[in-house]
Amino acid sequence: GRLSEVPVRVQGVARRAALPDFLRAYAEARAQGPWFFMFTDDDYRDGSSFDPLLNTWHHIPLPALPRDETFFPAASAGGLICFGCYADGWKTFVVCNPLTRVWRQLPSMLNPPFRLHTVGMVVDADTTSYKVLVAGNSDIYEVYDSATNCWEKTCIIPPGFYRWHQGILCNGFLYSKRFEFDGLVAYDMVEGVWSKIQAPMPHAFDYHALVECQGHIYTVGGQMKNDVTKQICILQLERTSLQWIEVDSMPKILFEEFLKDGESFSCAGYSDLVMLYIPGGLKDRLVLLYDLIKKLWRRLPQCTLPEHCMQDGLLDGISFEPRLDAVV
């Protein structure tokens, strides 16, 4: 596996020029940073997005996806979120722009998997076309290209994925975690080839998420003792030695406020920010934001959704870049 920079090339018809003048100017503006879309009901039909720039929550209902199915957040890129639906296999995927509420159901996969290992997504900023990669059980691996509106299966995936989670894109490669903490798998978005990276996690480290920031790969997780999280740490993958180096940890006072013995936590990350929360925690439970560049921990304000929308607390979430010009 390689960590060197590789350009992402996506075939497609350039659609940027067809955008209205306002959106074309918006597309050329500097990105404002990630938002965090957090679901607050177990049907994944409602939720709230946290805007770190304004330090506030926005109520953004999902588009009117088919009501007879439950869609789970699977991946995000370039202002778009990809949702998957399980019904006798992962047959259905939908891509939507949560700001414009426009969505599109993708064609059925060639060979829908019964178990997902990883889902990743990449958007070409010049053509606005996108690719969705799905790796599942029995070496099932396919890539959807919006430019051709087709799925394609091209090569065998390495065995031993850790568990289902969102893949991260870094320097042209899509990275995912391998089983038993023995490293990563990387998919070259240009060449269409998988490779293994031997980068085992430290002993007694409970991995939670991979995050890309400024061309580097980070992981967020907990130091365990007797199956209990005793500390939450941020590790960075060193490029040359392929060793995970601890770069920060949650202050003890904040950790004791955030997590109780025996509890588990979840996190969602995008670019330089990571949100940490207790799944299903009550609305008054602490939610944190960590800045990978500034190495700063921050308490978030309480979610301001109506009471009926917050009965189950924050259940699950995904981070994404809010963009009005993202084309579905």
Automatic annotation (TrEMBL):
It comes from the Eukaryota. InterPro entries: F-box-assoc_dom_typ3, Kelch-typ_b-propeller, SCF_F-box_component. Residues 58-299 form the F-box associated beta-propeller type domain. SUPFAM superfamilies: Kelch motif. Pfam families: FBA_3 (PF08268). This is F-box associated beta-propeller type 3 domain-containing protein.
